[in-house]
């Protein structure tokens, strides 16, 4: 029985090594890391990604599929929930690094099955809502940056202390209910920066856009 970490890396700031470090820090022993690089999680289904497709071929009954969060397993509600249920049908346990969620198809108790299935639906819906919110913040940030006069755009202000990967990670954790201190510890950013990301995501996106991040 193996534990396979699946990492989706969609920006130049994200790395599979970082996701592996997070998994190990959370107490997981990983046997192999499978990575899809340069793949958008909001436009490409798991089965359409080169390494995502490979997961369906290599995982066997008793194996554990580890992901940072459920959004790594699909582009929307249907894709995420279908992927989790397919892996469970094959006897694969799906676990998340963040919040330590466990999706196991082995249980036969009807009540436990009902709770598990409801949790899958909720997590998949949360994942899609989070993706939509981030897309909207990005659109608003770009529009705001473009609306600034040339002089302000050239000045740009102080360079952000965070990268786009930092911003995405913080937004993911905020959506999952993590506190400012926990996010600060994981990302290395100040609580003040996290607070701004929480209260003014469009402004944070605008700053990244102005600096070409």
Unreliably modeled segments: none
- In CATH terms, the superfamily of the largest domain is Resolvase, N-terminal catalytic domain
Fraction of residues in H or I helices: 40-55%
Strand order of the largest sheet: 2-1-3-4-5
Number of helices: 9
Number of strands: 5
Specify the structural class. Answer: alpha/beta
CATH architecture of the largest domain: 3-Layer(aba) Sandwich
Roughly how many Å is the radius of gyration? 18 Å
Number of domains: 2
Characterize the biggest β-sheet: 5 strands, mixed
Beta-strand share of residues:
5-15%
What is the CATH topology descriptor of the largest domain?
Answer: Rossmann fold
Overview of the structural elements:
By secondary structure, this protein is α/β, with parallel strands linked by helices. It folds into two domains: 3-106, Rossmann fold (3-Layer(aba) Sandwich), CATH 3.40.50.1390; 125-210, no CATH class. Helix content is 54%, strand content 11%. The protein is built from nine helices and five strands. The chain has helices at 16-25, 50-58, 77-89, 110-147, 150-155, 164-175, 180-187, 191-199, 201-210, and strands spanning 3-9, 32-37, 64-67, 93-96, 102-103. A five-stranded mixed sheet has the order 2-1-3-4-5, with helices on both faces. Strand 4 and strand 5 (102-103) form a beta hairpin. Helix 4 packs across helix 9 (201-210). The mean pLDDT is 79.
């Amino acid at each position: 029985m193996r534990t396979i970490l699946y990492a989706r890396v969609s920006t130049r700031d994200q790395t599979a090594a970082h996701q592996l470090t997070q998994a190990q820090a959370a107490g997981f022993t990983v046997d192999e890391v499978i990575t899809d690089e340069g793949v958008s999680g909001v436009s490409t289904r798991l089965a359409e990604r080169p390494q995502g497709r490979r997961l369906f071929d290599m995982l066997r009954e008793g194996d554990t599929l580890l992901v940072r969060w459920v959004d790594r397993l699909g582009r929307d509600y249907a894709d995420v929930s279908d992927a989790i249920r397919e892996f469970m049908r094959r006897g694969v346990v799906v676990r998340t690094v963040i919040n330590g969620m466990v999706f196991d198809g082995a249980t036969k108790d009807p009540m436990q099955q009902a709770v598990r299935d409801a949790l899958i639906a909720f997590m998949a819906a949360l994942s899609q809502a989070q993706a939509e919110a981030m897309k909207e913040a990005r659109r608003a940030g770009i529009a705001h940056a473009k609306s600034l006069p040339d002089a302000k755009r050239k000045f740009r202000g102080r360079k952000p202390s965070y990268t786009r990967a930092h911003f995405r990670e913080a937004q993911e954790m905020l959506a999952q209910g993590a506190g400012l201190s926990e996010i600060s510890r994981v990302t290395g950013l100040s609580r003040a920066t996290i607070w701004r990301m929480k209260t003014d995501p469009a402004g944070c996106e605008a700053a990244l856009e102005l600096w070409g991040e």
